[in-house]
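Bumping my old thread because nobody answered last time. Still need a sequence for this structure:
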């Protein structure tokens, strides 16, 4: 086929391939979610509806990208870890990052009404994204540990701050001043002494963030299905990786037994 005179402009296109044999992490984060959460009356400091909606959108990303072996999120962010040997889109960074982000954003809007039936979505939310490559298993595990440690630090601070403001009647600047320079133990003590809150009894979803894993489950003889299961557990300790050995082996989805009340996500399409 004859080429047009304009064909040369293709030479200006540039693509970045993620290095082979490295864990690919795509992290998305809500743009201006401080304002978004306020405008949509999110419960402070943690809104279960918003956090579950984030997990729902992340599960859709995992259904589309089956090479994502684990994802982890809290607040307005989610990290997706692609297996080291993934060949999806020839490991093209822009393709991966942009598709994960746009699918996440559209799924967030698609499922909004299920989670906020009484709240009109006031404007289309947006998410940014970045890609980071980790060469060793240890680096990748440390990355996830870093994100989970962040949940702990932020959640303890936010719970203390909002308890002082909403229950203690302090102005935000007074609460900030009171918490300045305090250690984790001081905040635990303050929560318990002033508000009767035992931090360790706060919902695990708030304290530990949400970890999503792909699992294969036999629905009581009705056949095996692949689901995405949320876990609200410690992912820093070795125990987590021992319990889910398929992750580091880059193997197939691990099996779980079905039980009543089990929490999981399945692909949802409009009928
Ligand atoms: P950015 O990411 O630089 O565009 O700015 P933000 O405003 O998204 O800041 P970021 O990502 O550092 O912090 C997340 C914000 O989202 C934080 O201000 C609190 C808000 N947020 C996230 N989840 C919840 C929630 O469950 N409840 C409430 N009230 N706010 C939340
Ligand atoms: Mg943000
Ligand atoms: Mg954030």
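Sorry it took so long. Here it is:
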């Amino acid at each position: 086929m004859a080429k047009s005179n304009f064909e040369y402009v293709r030479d200006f296109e540039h693509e970045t391939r993620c290095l082979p044999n490295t864990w690919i992490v795509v992290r998305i984060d809500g743009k201006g979610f401080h304002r978004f959460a306020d405008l949509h009356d999110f419960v402070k400091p943690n809104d279960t509806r918003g956090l579950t909606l984030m997990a729902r959108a992340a599960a859709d990303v995992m259904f589309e990208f089956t090479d994502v072996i684990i994802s982890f999120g809290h607040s307005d962010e989610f990290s997706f870890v692609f297996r080291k040997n993934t060949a999806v889109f020839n490991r093209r960074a822009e393709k991966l990052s942009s598709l994960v982000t746009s699918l996440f954003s559209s799924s967030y809007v698609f499922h909004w009404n299920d989670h906020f039936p009484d709240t009109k979505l006031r404007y289309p939310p947006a998410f940014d994204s970045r890609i980071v490559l980790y060469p060793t298993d240890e680096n990748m595990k440390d990355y996830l540990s870093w994100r989970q440690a962040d949940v702990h630090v932020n959640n303890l601070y936010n719970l203390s701050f909002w308890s002082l403001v909403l229950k203690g009647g302090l102005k935000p600047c007074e609460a900030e001043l009171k918490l300045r320079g305090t250690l984790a133990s001081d905040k635990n003590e303050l929560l318990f002494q002033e508000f009767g809150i035992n931090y360790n009894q706060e919902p695990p979803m708030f304290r530990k963030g949400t970890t999503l894993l792909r699992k294969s489950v036999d629905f009581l003889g009705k056949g095996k299905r692949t689901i995405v299961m949320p876990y609200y557990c410690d992912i820093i300790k070795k125990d987590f990786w021992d319990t889910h050995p398929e992750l580091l082996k880059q193997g197939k989805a691990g099996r779980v037994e079905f039980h009543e009340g089990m929490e999981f996500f399945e692909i949802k399409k409009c009928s």
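Strands lie at 23-30, 68-74, 77-82, 127-134, 210-218, 224-231, 254-257. Let me know if any region looks off to you.
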